[in-house]
Amino acid sequence: MKLLSINDFITRIHDVTKDLGVEVDVLSIGTSRSGNVIEALKISYLPRRALFLGFAHPNEPLCEPIMEAIVQEAAIWQSPNNHECWYLVPVWDVDGALKNQAWWSDTVSIARMIDHWYRPDPSQQVEWTFPLNYGGIHFDQPLPETDAVRRLIDMSNPELLVSLHNGVFPGAYTLISPQGSQLAPKIRDVFHTYGLDPKMYSPIPYVETFAEGVFGLPHARLEIDYLRSLEPEGSLSFYDNGGASFDYVNASCMSLVMELPLFKWIGGALANSPVRRRDLVARQIKLWESLEQDLADAFADPELLLSDHPLLSSPRYFYRRRKSDLTTIKKGLANAIENDDLAQEADLQNYMATLFTVSTQYSQLFRGGGRYTNTAESARSELEMLAKDHLSELDTHIITNAGRAIIRHLLDGMR
Ligand SMILES: [Zn+2]
């Protein structure tokens, strides 16, 4: 897989527009918290008002090849007979992407990812600080990056919004607004065409399922209702983020969140290490409990609890919402814990995803000033071993082609 450093990616996008003869206006739409310019490309003479957001999360670089495919699509569609504009924001969370780029601008590996991983808590995520006023939660402090895209949405009034996210482990999916639900079978077929196994079940417990790998959007109001159902008396005091871009656009806008994976699954059989589903699940719960305990110990130190080190915001967020997280995790695994069957691929993938989340939280904690623990070390080395046996990087062309095919279905579906 070939991914680029942020500067190289921006240069590449400009070069591709020139090479393909795409007429582009480069707009500066705002300035990040660290003073970096946030750029948007305005491409005119296209059908439909569309907005494409890259690096909505700073640790999700698969937007790079997909953004390039979007420029190629614009080159095909651009015609004096068309009168709308597309806006492309190649690097929305530019500060965060610069912090992460060390793990993808050379060879991508689980070890490099853990060592250089940076993901802030939702209140510091550009995608999750749009204004929100629902169910007792009031948020009105968009980050400067969020405000830049908010102004762009106000100005462009998109009919189509595509926010480019990505996952790590096998299991491709998209999240789409209700008016896109009729496209669900086509999107599922795209995953099959390119050998990307779609996720069978939604990873988010409170959204609809339209097809394998095609689920409803995780609107903030749905999450708030869900959290209230877990904790009817709770204050949700940890909930300090806002809504997402798809919460902010008009309800008539077709919104899609793309979640293609970085890795594909190889050597699926678990014959060498037969393990029962319930044992794997028990280990998963134990991992979460160890993380929660280590976070509680770490944040008992007021210096760490109050530190404004950017790497600490995410582990601190996990610490603050540990009660509802553990409830959700245990609920999701309740059936499996009593299951005597041998573990299947999907069980191992879930287990590896837990090892990864736990390892990246520990990594951020240590790099932010916390102490190293035994669970951190064992989780990381177990994951590296499993990754060697079961994961391989996806070819960039698969990402480009699958991303492009989904966007074509969206544009065709709107005609
Ligand atoms: Zn994301």
Number of helices: 15
Order of helices and strands: HEEEHEHHEEHEEHEEHHEEHHHHHHEH
> How many beta strands in the DSSP annotation?
13
Can you give the mean pLDDT?
A: 93
Radius of gyration (CA) equals: 21 Å
Q: Please give the CATH architecture of the largest domain.
A: 3-Layer(aba) Sandwich
Bound molecules: zinc ion
User: If strands are numbered along the chain, what order do they take across the biggest sheet?
Assistant: 1-2-4-3-7-11-8-10-9
* Structure classification: alpha/beta
Beta strand %: 15-25%
Biggest β-sheet: count, sense, barrel?
Answer: 9 strands, mixed
- Binned, the helix content reads 40-55%
Shape: globular
Distance between the termini: 34 Å
Count of domains: 2
SSE topology:
Layout: H1 6-19, E1 25-31, E2 37-46, E3 50-53, H2 63-77, E4 84-89, H3 94-100, H4 110-116, E5 132-134, E6 137-139, H5 144-156, E7 160-166, E8 173-176, H6 184-193, E9 209-211, E10 214-216, H7 220-230, H8 245-248, E11 254-260, E12 263-265, H9 277-298, H10 302-306, H11 313-320, H12 322-333, H13 345-367, H14 374-390, E13 391-393, H15 396-413
Parallel strand pairs: 3-4, 3-7, 7-11, 8-10
Antiparallel strand pairs: 1-2, 2-4, 5-6, 8-11, 9-10, 12-13
The structure holds zinc ion.
Zinc ion (ZN) binds next to loops.
